[in-house]
Amino acid sequence: MRLTLPSVPYVAGSPVGDDGAEDLEPDAGWLLRIWAIAAVFAGVALWRSVVVGIPVRDPGGEILRVRMAITTGTFVVLAVLDAVRRVPRGRHHLLAIWEMLGRRWPARRLLRAASALLAYHLVYASYHNLKSWDVLNAPRDHALTGVDRALFLGHSPAVLLHTLLGEHWSAYLLVVVYESFPTLVSIAFVAAVVFADRIRDGVVFIASAVWVWILGVASYYLVPSLGPFHDRPQDFAGLPHTIVTTTQTTYLGQRAHLLADPSAHDAFAQVSAFASLHVGVTAVIVLMAVYYRLRRTALVLAGYLVLTIVATVYLGWHFVVDDVAGLAIGAVAVVLGIVTTYPTGRPGRRVQAVGRLPGREWSA
Fold it and tell me: Coil, strand, or helix at residue 362?
């Protein structure tokens, strides 16, 4: 049977279109699997908390409460933008937009989206606590420096980049690239849920992001490290003082504080190098754009990923081997995310790209 859809923009393919009430699934097993993973990971964090004798923390509310507030605000803004683009041209008035929001987000669909996003934040908060306690392990930066130098025939890849790109304007540009990462992440995983016709398709992104945080913190414990800026500060002495320099100093101070007094209420560290999750998470975003068939977006994001890799090495955050590991983790996380959401494959339909189309035929 052939089904022709009206002209509507959409991300993930299904004959749902604008009507969220038609976003039906025979069961919510995909959501339960994500929550099971989140619960187990949170359990690991609680177990590790007991082992190290440090309670789970949310310093200043920045890891959980603030992030959830940002996600809620981002969801609302993107949901309104999504409703605006779905309303037929010439009808962009408040009542039509409000009606479209109601069609897109009936109560059950909204609750499932909120549940998936909450599971993500539970994993993210657990990740940050486990990352904080990783500083109790002896760092192995010297070994990673040796690997990098072996790969580059005895040279420091960061110094090579400084020589090639200079140490002034390039530094400021790469700082902007590096510091834009949190904003990109905050928008990307919410956008996947909001713009997908089927919540389950959007949750593929959530599941992949969950896995990248889990695999990333596992790599921290596998090879504890702080980064080239700590192991070879002389390689970065020629760079201008920027927000990155301040952050690196802050992170080392946080580490020293936690090591000196783990029981202090504000003892919380945020520095680990292997593997680079700046690279790993960005790789997930690029691969998700490919998965959703957003070809132009994927190309732009691939360029951003390249700049991110350069920035991590240039600014001293990561060794080259950290970035290679980050790419591998990102790829594995996407595979696991797809399998978690669609363990037996996505039945009968292909994932489609964003775009206002004259019509779309589906096999059903």
Answer: strand
Using alpha carbons, list the distances in angstroms from residue 133 to 13, 46, 319.
42, 12, 21
- What CA–CA distance (Å, rounded) separates 6 from 265? 57
Domain segments of the chain: what residues? 29-351
Quote the DSSP letter at residue 136.
G
Q: How far apart are CA 317 and CA 229, in angstroms?
A: 6
Q: Between the CA atoms of 24, 29, 34 and 38, what dihedral angle is there, to the nearest 10 degrees? A: 130
Helix runs in the chain, H state only: 29-52, 65-86, 94-104, 107-133, 141-151, 157-165, 169-179, 181-195, 199-222, 228-231, 243-260, 277-291, 295-314, 320-341
User: What is the identity of the amino acid at 159?
Assistant: V
Q: What's the confidence (pLDDT) of residue 227? A: 95
How many residues can be counted in the chain? 364
Contact 195, 11 (CB under 8 A): yes
Over residues 214-259, the pLDDT tens digits come to 999 999 999 999 999 999 999 999 999 999 999 999 999 999 999 9
C-alpha to C-alpha distance for 12 and 306, rounded to whole angstroms: 26
Which amino acid is located at 77 in the chain? V
Cα–Cα dist 314/192, whole Å: 31
User: CA-to-CA distance for 209 and 89, rounded, in angstroms?
Assistant: 35
